[in-house]
Structure formats: structure tokens, C-alpha cells
Amino acid sequence: MLDLVTIPFSHYCEKARWALDRAGLAYRERRYLPGLHVWAARRALEGTGAGRADAHSSRFSTPILLGAGAPLADSSDIARFADPSLFDDPQAARLDGHYGEALGPHTRRVAYWFCLEEPAMLFALAKKNAPVPQALALRLAFPLLAGRLREGMKIDRAGYERSLDVTRRVADEAAALLADGRRYLVGDRFSAADLALASMLMPVVMPPPEHCGAVLPQPEALSEAPRALAREMRAHPAGAFAMRMFAEERWRR
After folding, report:
1. Residue 59 sits in a domain of what CATH number?
2. Are residues 65 and 182 in the same domain?
């Protein structure tokens, strides 16, 4: 049995879940909330040399897949393990890397900005996506966790605004590819490019629970600023494409 260590509402973790589900691979998801996941990640990676830090994440980030030989600690590596054919087209592989690097960190920063400004949103995410003891621990640890998240991910007003600009720019790039009416970003079938774009836009389009592996708040339940952004991104051609991928491809095998 495969074990997948996740932060359940992480878009990188959703990308890994989606690939495993699509391939029909049985796995057990071990869900941890932000901050609490570090203990699980350290335990999973201890002595393996797996995992790597970069400009946006520590070595002990999720997702981590166990039981597939050496631990896999990157969402693209997990997707490639689940279904190598997703990466058959070199352009699909290139776009997968591009969206993971150029888009993913920025939609994550935007989402955490809203959650740290409105902790009730984070507490609701915790309650709906993780075990009750963890949700309670998150509430107690929130003042410390908030400070570490702000420092580690550079979550401040300037960072939020910069990431929002980048999100819109990368979405515009994807929209330009889709402008000719193509059904998928690359070729005539679902690929790593589609998986990556849809997953990396998840924090700002917020697909409904039936189309996603996590329970995310829907726009009508949000305050004005995140609601307006979710509606804007859902109406954007790239966001509409992501919503269609979640609706049509998320549970397809």
C-alpha cells in the first residue's frame, strides 16, 4: 500500500492525489495541517536523502509518497510515477515545470494571505480537511504558526500584491494558448500540463468538493476580497479551463 503524506488543501498535494487517482493506484492519505506536517515529513524522509529545499519550500514539504521505492517528495515526480504517459509530450513536461515554479508558489501565497488575514477561513479549512485534534491544535498554535508562515513564505501586503500580479500574468499566458479553442493545452488528450495548470490554480478558483480531493470554501461563503478574486479567476479563460478540468477529468481513470 502506498502512503501519501499531505497538507490536504495544498494544490501540490491535490496534483499528486489527482495523478494517483487517475492511475487507479491504491494509497492511504496521511493528512497533516500546516506546521504539523513537518514532523511527519521529517519522519518520512529521515535518512533517505530525499526531498530538497528551494526558493519557495523547505526540504520537509508535502506531498511525499512512500512505498514506491525511495520516497518521492515532489508532485511532478509522483505524477510521473503514477502515469509516465502524462509527460510523453516534451511541451507538456515543460509546462508542468513552468506552472509548478512560476504559478504554484504565487497562488499559495495569495491563499495564505487571505487565511492569515481572516483566520476563520483557515480554521474552517482545518475542520473540514483534517482530524479534529489537529484542527484544535492549529487554533492553539495559530499565533506562532502565523508568524512562521509570514516569515517563511514572505506573506505580507507587498508579497501578496506581487503574487497576485504574477498569477494574473501566468493565467494570461495560458489563456493565449487556449485562444485557438483547443480542448487541452498540449495535443488531444489530458497531460501533465493540464494537471499542473488546473492544480496550481486551485487556490484561486476553488473548485467544489465533488470535483476536488479537498473541501475548499466556495465564493459565496467568503468575504469580499477573496470572493471577488475567486469570481474573477473562474471567469478568466485559464480559470474556466481549470474548472473544466476539475469537472471533467478529476475523477476520470
Report:
1. 3.40.30.10
2. no
Q: Give the residue from 25, 55, 84 where a domain finishes.
A: 84
Domain boundary (52, 84, 116) is at 84
- Buried b / exposed e over 111-132, threshold 16 CB at 10 Å, is bbbbbbbeeebbbbbbeebbee
- The residues near 94 (Cβ < 8 Å, ≥ 6 apart) are none
Residues with Cβ within 8 Å of 10's Cβ and at least 6 positions away in sequence, in order, are 62, 63, 108
Domain count, the chain: 2
Q: pLDDT-based confidence at 55, cuts 50/70/90?
A: low
Q: Which residues of the chain form beta strands (DSSP E)? A: 2-6, 27-31, 64-66
What are 58-98's pLDDT values in tens digits? 666 899 999 989 999 999 999 999 999 999 999 999 999 99
Per the CB < 8 A criterion, the answer to whether 249 and 190 are in contact is yes
Confidence (pLDDT) at 44: 80
How far is the CA of 109 from the CAs of 153, 187, 189, 228, in angstroms?
7, 31, 31, 17
pLDDT of res. 59: 61
Rounded distance between C-alpha atoms, residue 5 and residue 174, angstroms = 30
Domain CATH number, residue 237: 1.20.1050
Q: What's the Cα-to-Cα distance from 53 to each of 39, 79, 198, rounded to whole Å?
A: 16, 19, 24
Q: 212 and 104 share a domain?
A: yes
- In terms of pTM, does the model score above 0.85? yes
Query: CA 4 to CA 15: how far, in whole Å?
Result: 12
- Asked if residue 165 lies in contact with residue 71, where contact means CB atoms within 8 angstroms, the answer is no
CA 197, CA 193: separation in Å to the nearest integer? 6
| Residue 209, C-alpha cell as written in the block | 468538493
